[in-house]
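User: Predict the complex.
Assistant: Input components as received:
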Amino acid sequence: MPDDPIVAPQPARPTGLDLPLVDSVALQRLIEEVRHQEAGELLGATLYNRTYHRHNR
Amino acid sequence: MIPTISLSDPYAPLAPSESVEIPFRYFLADRCLAPEMETGLLHWLEGPVPWKLAVTDFYEQFEFDLRDTVLPEELAVLVAPKALERLRGKMERALSCRLGQRVDIVAHRLEPGQRIAIHNDFRNGGETHRLTVQLNRGLSDEDGGFFMLFNSDDASDIHRILRPAAGSVIGFAISGASHHAVSRLYGGTRYTLVYSFHAAASA
């Protein structure tokens, strides 16, 4: 089976998958949705890693 | 009824369309699975599979490890060693890395109201590369559930926001810089198949 062609790394460029960032209100809402509640707290690697609970059962 | 699938390489469609190095190494692809495999998988995930609700201080979602269930015969090729070996090779070529044989596969399900806050997946000695495949019945922008990539651990420092288009793929190298998140879902159900890879043992 032939290998897939290697795609050379390039700066990110918008595609159909990208959400245009034109509405500042909507953008601010998205930012707030993914911001940690504990703003300013230093988060440990365990907390960062959302696979922890799966892999350490 | 899951459609009949007779593919020896379920990952044949995976071909990176874009490769990026900054802020961290990742690639995008339009597809990973053959359409009939995608349909069968989605149908199966919508049925009685062992979803467990995981709630932490930065995310809430349903998830289960594919090791904890028996895949239908039609989908078993997804975890066949030869198929995973080919997938691993694609990841190695796409991200210029060497990976070990171990591949973990976990299914995620996000329901309206759920989200995953910014994080980087990094853990010393843990998996080193990730591949995520979006599975859904079609989500509009109003439904949310966007995959967000960041330049830093600051949620306002956005690199890119990607729609969860059905079948689309992002593969990335896990590091202290691989900050990402999933915005809140407002409608529909957002499934993701998450493959985790580990670095090859050093000689």
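Helices of chain B lie at 35-45, 81-95.
Let me know if you want any component modeled separately.
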